[in-house]
Amino acid sequence: MTEDEVRRIVVEMTTDPDAEREYELRHPDCLIDIPQSGERFDREGMLEMQRNFPGGPPDMNLKRLAGEGDAWVAELESDYGDERGGVFNVCVILEFKEGKIARETRYYAEPFEAPEQRAQWTLPAEG
After folding, report:
1. Mean pLDDT value of segment 2-28
2. Alpha-carbon distance 83 to 56, whole Å?
3. Rounded distance, CA 91 to CA 95, Å?
4. Is 22 within 8 Å of 13 (Cβ atoms)?
5. Of 33, 58, 73, 82, which one is least surrounded by beta carbons within 10 A?
6. Where does the pLDDT of residue 80 fall: very low under 50, low under 70, confident under 90, or very high at 90 and above?
7. Exposed, middle or buried: residue 66 (CB in 10 Å: 0-12, 13-18, 19+)?
8. Cα–Cα distance, 84 to 3 (Å, whole number)
9. Which of 64, 69, 67, 112 is nearest to 88 (CA)?
10. What are phi and psi of 3, to 5 degrees?
11. Sheet of 59-68, strands arranged across
């Protein structure tokens, strides 16, 4: 897979998310893991979870994409809104087979304030 192909897929999944469209981007044998919650979904299970997600999908913004061949990592920012938990940094590991997502592992992290005592060693954040 080329970066342009993967970027197109990730943008399709994150811009105006649609469970049925996302279902078509996944390989029939796809597995989706969310280690923090201990959940594992197959393609059909993820479709139903997304169709029934409380409040609909979050607003997502792709921050970075890295990888080559059939293994890629996407860094995203997902905004669920204040009522549903706020903003999360998301890392998605994607593995492809036959041009479709065959394996997906999602990690979610809440932003936090850095300790003041480390400020002297930090660099400016990328914007």
Report:
1. 93
2. 12
3. 13
4. yes
5. 82
6. confident
7. exposed
8. 32
9. 112
10. -60, -40
11. 39-42, 26-34, 100-109, 87-97, 71-79, 59-68
